[in-house]
């Protein structure tokens, strides 16, 4: 009947961390996650957990899309991250790993 | 990266490529006649979207990457093609969350729902006991909803949702609602009563008192796992924000498609002032969402109006557009349920006779009786 401007998916209780992010391993977009491009970056929706997550920059979206093409997440980060920003991309992927958007191959 | 970009709230005010929260009322037909029905449902509209049109709309949602759709009504399970449409949506990558009064949720249908990965079910009750619930939703409705919940549990559906509209008469039952949800392993969802649809006629006597609002706020702060559909963001003016976006998403991240394909800014504003277009128009839903003059204007910076001098405006954003509109208040002023009482003062100055009348009234002409036959 109504949804009341709902973004309940975002407010859903955090899932337990599925994996600790290790940039030395290969990672991929979780097969149950879909991305939708938006002006600020993208929305990621996990059909399994019903969680909606926001990717707040285009380079981060590009990184997530190309993760699987690299042997390690670290390599994938090096391909997109400007000098000096590597740590922030590691932190962003760590967050996406804990919310299940990406998983280790 | 987060530190370099405007807040998501500011981004959302500019609108998105497609809604995050799309509500689709499948039918105005309903076998209940709830006193606060936001869509004044009862009778089926003869211009209702056909199965083919509905399926085409689902295809458009899939193309827009609308990840899930909130289906309601009326009572959506009344439509003979309900399962066909639900299954078409989920097969197309559009998850379904649907609200039902439970009267048509037979054991067989519960098993069918349990077999789907991408379907969430919300059973509506508006009282934790028969007397409180049925006073609002009609005789037999509590028993029917309970049977539906039993059927879902028996079918092994898993975690469904129990959806409650908060009223003056059920807000004292919060702990009982929580206990019912716990008994079923269900998630509790509480939403705000709006003066929309038949709610326009009952809001004055049903909406929460200010002390009740404060008690609810405290209860919710202690229970972040209780879902609210972001509907109580006006309460965030009381202190720590409640979970969620804390802004009016109408036309920005939210909209409503009604049973005849009319697109409104949100589920609570079925009125020509908030009608953006129709999915049967040439460009379909996509062009209504992206190009309609109404939605374009809602995505422009909004004035805080009379709330500009209030230190809590950033927290509550002036509250709910629909609540203001149907109580006759200016849209750039306080919410009628402003926790600081500014709305009450404003309301006192508005004669009830100048309140806008909700439109698309499909209320049954005769009292309805409950039928549990499928």
Question: What does this 3D model show about the protein?
Answer:
The complex is a heterodimer of chains A (105) and B (374). Chain A is built from four helices and five strands; from the N terminus they run H-E-E-E-E-H-H-H-E. Chain A is an alpha+beta fold and 105 residues long. Chain A starts with 7 loop residues before the first helix and ends with a strand. The model of chain A is unreliable at 1-17 (pLDDT under 50). Chain A has one domain (27-100). Chain B is α/β, with parallel strands linked by helices and 374 residues long. Chain B is 32% helix and 12% strand. Chain B contains 14 helices and nine strands. In chain B, strand 1, helix 2 and strand 2 (68-72) form a beta-alpha-beta unit. In chain B, helix 4 packs across helix 6. The radius of gyration of chain B is 20 Å and the shape is globular. The model of chain B has no long low-confidence stretch (mean pLDDT 94).
Which tags fit this structure?
heterodimer; A: 105 residues; alpha+beta; three-stranded antiparallel beta sheet; two-stranded antiparallel ribbon; 32% helix; globular; disordered N terminus; B: 374 residues; alpha/beta; nine-stranded mixed beta sheet; 14 helices
Number of strands of chain B: 9
Would you count the extended β strands of chain A for me? 5
Task: Please tell me what the overall shape of chain A is.
Answer: globular
Strand content of chain B: 5-15%
How far apart, in Å, are the first and last alpha carbons of chain B? 52 Å
Compact description:
The complex is a heterodimer of chains A (105) and B (374). Chain A is an alpha+beta fold. Helix content of chain A is 32%, strand content 22%.
């Amino acid at each position: 009947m109504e949804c009341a401007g709902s973004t309940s998916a975002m407010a859903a209780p955090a899932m337990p961390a599925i994996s600790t992010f290790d940039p030395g391993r290969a990672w991929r977009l979780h097969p149950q996650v879909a991305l939708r491009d938006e002006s600020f970056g993208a929305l990621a929706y996990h059909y399994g957990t019903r969680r909606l997550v926001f990717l707040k920059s285009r380079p981060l979206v590009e990184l997530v899309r190309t993760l699987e093409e690299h042997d390690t997440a670290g390599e994938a980060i090096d391909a997109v991250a400007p000098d000096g920003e590597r740590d922030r991309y590691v932190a962003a992927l760590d967050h996406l790993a804990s919310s299940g958007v990406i998983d280790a191959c | 990266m987060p530190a370099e970009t405007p807040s998501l709230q500011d981004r959302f005010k500019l609108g998105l490529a497609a809604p995050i929260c799309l509500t689709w009322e499948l039918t105005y037909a309903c076998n209940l006649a709830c006193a606060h029905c936001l869509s004044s449902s009862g009778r089926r509209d003869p211009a209702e979207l056909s199965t083919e049109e509905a399926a085409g709309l689902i295809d458009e949602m899939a193309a827009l990457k609308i990840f899930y759709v909130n289906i309601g009504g009326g009572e959506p399970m009344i439509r003979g093609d309900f399962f066909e449409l639900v299954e078409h949506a989920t097969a197309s990558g559009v998850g379904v969350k649907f609200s039902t009064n439970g009267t048509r949720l037979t054991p067989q249908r519960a098993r069918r729902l349990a077999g789907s990965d991408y379907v969430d079910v919300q059973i509506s009750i508006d009282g934790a006991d028969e007397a409180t619930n049925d006073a609002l939703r009609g005789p037999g409705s509590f028993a029917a909803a309970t049977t539906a919940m039993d059927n879902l549990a028996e079918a092994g559906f898993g975690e469904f949702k129990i959806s409650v509209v908060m009223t003056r008469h059920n807000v004292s039952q919060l702990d009982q609602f929580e206990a019912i949800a716990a008994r079923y392993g269900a998630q509790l969802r509480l939403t705000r009563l709006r003066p929309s649809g038949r709610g326009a006629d009952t809001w004055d006597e049903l909406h929460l008192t200010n002390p009740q609002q404060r008690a609810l706020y405290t209860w919710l702060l202690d229970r972040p796992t209780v879902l609210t559909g972001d509907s109580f963001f006006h309460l965030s003016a009381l202190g720590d924000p409640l979970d969620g976006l804390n802004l009016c998403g109408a036309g920005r991240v939210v909209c409503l498609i009604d049973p005849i394909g009319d697109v409104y800014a949100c589920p609570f504003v079925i009125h020509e002032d908030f009608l953006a277009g129709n999915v049967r128009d040439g460009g379909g839903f996509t062009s209504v969402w992206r190009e309609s003059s109404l939605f374009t204007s809602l995505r422009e910076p909004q004035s805080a109006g009379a709330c500009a001098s209030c230190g809590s405006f950033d927290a509550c954003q002036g509250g709910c557009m629909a609540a203001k509109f149907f109580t006759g208040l200016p849209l750039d002023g306080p919410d009628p349920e402003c926790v600081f009482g500014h709305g009450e003062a404003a309301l006192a100055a508005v004669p009830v006779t100048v309140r806008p009348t909700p439109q698309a009234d499909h209320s049954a002409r005769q009292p309805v009786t409950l039928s549990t036959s499928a």
